[in-house]
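Researcher: I'd like a candidate sequence for this fold, 231 residues long. If you have to choose between options at a position, lean toward the conservative one.
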């Protein structure tokens, strides 16, 4: 299975996620006059984080994906619990496994330095996810921006919509389908989210019981990806 094909699916998948965002009109030029320094503020932060630890690039893609699965791509995952709602960070698919928040915080600070109060965290997360993929050697794409940050998060939404590590293939497939994503998208996103260390010959890692992903034991996908992609 060619890593390049996976990269192409990733591209369409992240575009599909963007299309699924419910906030009005997104466009690539949304901040072109209000924050022209946006992209050059975010990228060095992501680059430096990945230079320190490659895995965090995959973690940021996973943050974006787990954010988008609950209420759309609205940065709800970044919110801590408040008196009025329980946030998403401790929901089963996230508790103890979501990481990379400090990189998004640092990118937000860098953006605030160049244009305070303009750019949403949801957009910064979307840009940082793209930058991570590019820095790790994947494809590039233009990030459509103009998202608004949510003021609420949903613990139950995270539990119900994001596939937990124990999901089997049927549930994985239906949870991705609920977001308008195909099995190919699922493989691309899951594989990217778990591409921690190089497997021999670019084989990728994936999520889910099917793939025996239990903590440390992540198996290379030599057999599983071709089976899924053939369906
Ligand atoms: C999150 O994980 C911690 C550590 O395993 C556990 O103590 C806590 O109860 C979990 N929180 C929820 C809401 O499940
Ligand atoms: C799918 O989800 C349902 C409802 O949460 C659960 O009862 C069932 O065991 C799950 N099946 C698989 C294959 O994960």
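Model: Candidate sequence:
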């Amino acid at each position: 299975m060619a890593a390049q094909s996976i990269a192409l699916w990733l591209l369409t998948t992240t575009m599909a996620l963007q299309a699924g965002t419910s906030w009005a009109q997104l466009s690539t030029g949304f901040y072109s006059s209000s924050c022209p320094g946006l992209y050059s503020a975010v990228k060095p932060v992501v680059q430096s984080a990945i230079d320190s630890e490659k895995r965090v690039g995959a973690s940021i893609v996973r943050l974006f994906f787990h954010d988008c699965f609950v209420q759309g791509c609205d940065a709800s995952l970044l919110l801590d619990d408040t008196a009025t709602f329980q946030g998403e960070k401790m929901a089963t698919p996230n508790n103890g496994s979501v990481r990379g928040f400090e990189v998004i915080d640092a990118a937000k600070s860098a953006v605030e330095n160049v244009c305070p109060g303009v750019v949403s965290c949801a957009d910064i997360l979307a840009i940082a996810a793209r930058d991570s993929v590019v820095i790790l050697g994947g494809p590039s794409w233009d990030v459509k921006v103009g998202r608004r940050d949510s003021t609420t998060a949903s613990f139950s939404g995270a539990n119900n919509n994001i596939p937990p590590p124990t999901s089997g293939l049927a549930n994985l497939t239906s949870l991705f389908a609920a977001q308008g994503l195909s099995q190919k998208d699922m493989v691309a996103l899951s594989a990217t989210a778990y591409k921690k260390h190089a497997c021999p010959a670019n084989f990728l890692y994936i999520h889910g019981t099917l793939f025996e992903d239990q903590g440390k034991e992540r198996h290379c996908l030599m057999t599983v990806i071709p089976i899924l992609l053939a369906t």
